[in-house]
Structures are given as structure tokens and as C-alpha cells.
Design a protein that fits this description.
alpha+beta; two-stranded antiparallel ribbon; single chain
Length: 119
């Protein structure tokens, strides 16, 4: 069965992607959280962000699970979302619904957002 491995690093803003033989993956939106500034704002973001995915094709591959930092500074957490295409990822990210909610993430923590085309 094809698999995917992803490593996100906040210090270098890097994302490395590899697939097992035969694997094919869409575009990945990677959000390493570097530091929390206002937990209340993050709580608002987390309570509303799920609704912004309605009508958009996506798959959450990782969300704040256990991590092992191999290089650089460890992020507080990482979220990785897969979309079928760059256009699908941008349609969600640029949507009025997400742009309204993401303001709480901007106030709540320092993140890096990276969109990487899959193989």
C-alpha cells in the first residue's frame, strides 16, 4: 500500500515529502506552530476552522500528533492537510470563510504556512 512521509520544520520553513513506490499524492498544506501568543484566540480558531472545510475536498493527514524533531527547533505542533490540487488548496485558503477565521490564528500564535505540490 502506498504511504506518505512528511517532515515539517519551523526554523528552516522546510517540508520534505517522500512516497513509497506507486504512491501519488495531492498538494499538502503544512502548518507548523512555532509559538503560542494568545491561547484564547487559538481556541476561537480551533472551534471555527472545521466549518471552513465544508464544500472543499481535503484530508487531514496529521494534527498535533506525536512528533520527533530531527533537525532545528521543534515546533509546538504541526497540522498537515492534503488537497487534490493547488487550486483546491487555494480555494479553501482564500475563501471568505477561512479568511475570517484565520485572523484568530494570526493573533493566537506564530505559524508558518507552506503549500507543497505532491508527487
Amino acid at each position: 500500500m502506498p504511504g506518505i512521509g512528511v517532515r515539517c520544520g519551523s526554523a528552516a520553513s522546510s517540508l520534505q515529502l517522500h512516497t513509497n513506490a506507486g504512491g501519488s499524492h495531492g498538494n499538502l498544506h503544512c502548518l507548523p506552530k512555532e509559538s503560542t501568543q494568545d491561547q484564547g484566540e487559538l481556541d476561537i480558531y480551533q472551534s471555527k476552522v472545521g466549518e471552513t472545510f465544508k464544500g472543499h475536498p481535503f484530508k487531514i493527514l496529521a494534527a498535533y500528533g506525536p512528533q520527533q524533531t530531527l533537525e532545528g527547533d521543534a515546533p509546538e505542533g504541526v497540522v498537515i492537510v492534503e488537497f487534490p490540487s493547488t487550486a483546491d488548496a487555494r480555494a479553501w485558503y482564500d475563501s471568505p470563510a477561512y479568511q475570517d477565521v484565520v485572523q484568530h490564528r494570526f493573533k493566537g500564535a506564530r505559524y508558518r504556512a507552506v503549500l507543497v505540490e505532491g508527487m
